[in-house]
Write a structure and sequence with these properties.
With about 325 residues, the chain is an alpha/beta fold. It has two domains: about 140 residues, Medium-chain alcohol dehydrogenases, catalytic domain (Quinone Oxidoreductase, Chain A, domain 1, Alpha-Beta Complex); about 150 residues, 3-Layer(aba) Sandwich (Rossmann fold), CATH 3.40.50. Helices cover about 25% and strands about 25% of the residues. It contains nine helices and 15 strands. Helix 2 packs across helix 3 and helix 2 packs across helix 8. The longest helix is centred in the C-terminal third of the chain and has 17 residues. It binds NADPH dihydro-nicotinamide-adenine-dinucleotide phosphate (NDP). NADPH dihydro-nicotinamide-adenine-dinucleotide phosphate binds next to helix 2 and helix 6.
């Protein structure tokens, strides 16, 4: 059983030395348990937080612990009457080839165009997009919605849902094929390159009526450009701030909290953070119902960035935090 464990905590951007490949025997089963073989591993930005020992909403990994992660796994042996050999399940086996589970929390994966959709459109990132946009962003038809990392797992779904709700949608991404994909394939109204030297002016031009919903995925320079364009009563679901995940200290410069607080007050802005894990019990079923309808009707799509092989996980994860991914990163462990 090959496993990727945390070798040392990253200092800034993770490096290959922060991960260690270890091998152990495939565990044997007790009554009530199943043996899971990982087929697909989801790579997600939150894993960077788990590698750190800074306080967060979830406990840090210990050194030597298998890196956490959502998986689509196959039941290869079962001593649990609820699961049969060959079943595909959504599990949280993490960065390893095999895991023994007593069945708690496993969900059967069936009826999807691709089993890996359980990790993307129909899974955690899709649900994150849906919940943050609709329940916190509360977009109304005709309003302007802006989202960054717009070709990625969460951002691409945010923009497509906002279009389905009748909004004007501006996606921010890296230039080239990502920028083209967001406009031409996903059908956003505008798609901008966050690296452009004229980015601020381009954003102002793309949002001539101001911004009503800014779905925050990134923070950093994008947030700075969005701020002056926010309308009165704008909503900001704070989903993530990936631009800061590798930071080792606060940015230099003046304290801007008073400016930000003053703007939130004057413009009556609502800014609310959320962690999707809090919302599964009540929110997942309505999300799954509506998303299934959109998917069946061909109204929504997801681009997966498939990475081949267990060995490739660390490099793909490092790339994800640098924006090297194009779509939802899924590691295919092979048969
Ligand atoms: P993505 O598939 O969007 O991949 C990450 C993307 O972030 C990169 O491709 C890049 O996109 C962008 N990026 C990287 N560095 C920067 C930077 N310095 N400034 C701006 N953009 C940058 O990842 P996900 O869709 O999985 O995650 C998107 C966000 O959602 C993350 O912040 C994540 O932490 C958050 N999240 C939060 C959850 C919650 O419960 N609150 C749950 C799931 C995700 P590009 O090249 O297009 O700019």
């Amino acid at each position: 059983n090959r496993q990727w464990v945390l070798n040392q905590r990253p200092n800034g951007a993770p490096t290959p030395d922060d991960f260690k490949l270890v091998e152990s025997d495939i565990p044997s089963l007790n009554e009530g348990e199943v043996l899971l073989k990982t087929r697909y591993l989801s790579l997600d930005p939150y894993m960077r937080g788990r590698m750190s020992d800074a306080p967060s909403y979830a406990p840090s990994l210990n050194i030597g612990e298998v890196i956490v992660g959502g998986t689509v796994s196959e039941v290869v042996e079962s001593k649990n009457p609820k699961f049969a050999k060959g079943d595909r399940v959504l599990a949280g086996s993490g960065w390893q080839e095999y895991e023994v589970s007593d069945g708690t929390g496993l969900m059967l994966v069936e009826g999807l165009p691709e089993p890996s959709y359980a990790l993307s459109l129909m899974g955690m990132p899709g649900f994150t997009a849906y919940h943050g946009l609709l329940n916190i962003g509360e977009p109304k038809p005709g309003e302007t919605v802006v989202v960054a990392s717009a070709s990625g797992a969460v951002g691409s779904v945010v923009g497509q849902i906002a279009k389905l709700k009748g909004c004007r949608v501006v996606g921010i991404t890296s230039g080239g094929k990502k920028q083209q994909y967001v406009k031409d394939t996903l059908g956003f109204d505008e798609s901008l390159d966050r690296h452009s030297p004229n980015f601020e002016a381009e954003l102002a031009k793309a949002a001539p009526d101001g911004i009503d919903v800014y779905y925050e995925n990134v923070g950093g320079a994008v947030f700075d450009a969005v701020l002056p364009l926010l309308n009165d009563f704008a909503r900001i679901p704070v989903c993530g701030v990936i631009a800061h995940y590798n930071a080792t200290e606060l940015p230099q410069g003046p304290d801007r909290v008073p400016m930000l607080a003053g703007m939130i007050l004057r413009k009556r802005i609502r800014m609310q953070g959320f962690i999707i894990m809090d919302h599964y019990e009540t929110g997942y079923a309505p999300f799954a119902k509506e998303m299934t309808q959109w998917l069946k009707a061909g109204q929504i799509r997801i681009k997966e960035d498939r990475v081949q092989g267990f060995e490739a996980a660390p490099e793909a994860f490092i790339g994800l935090l640098e924006g090297k991914n194009f779509g939802k990163v899924v590691v295919d462990f092979g048969a």
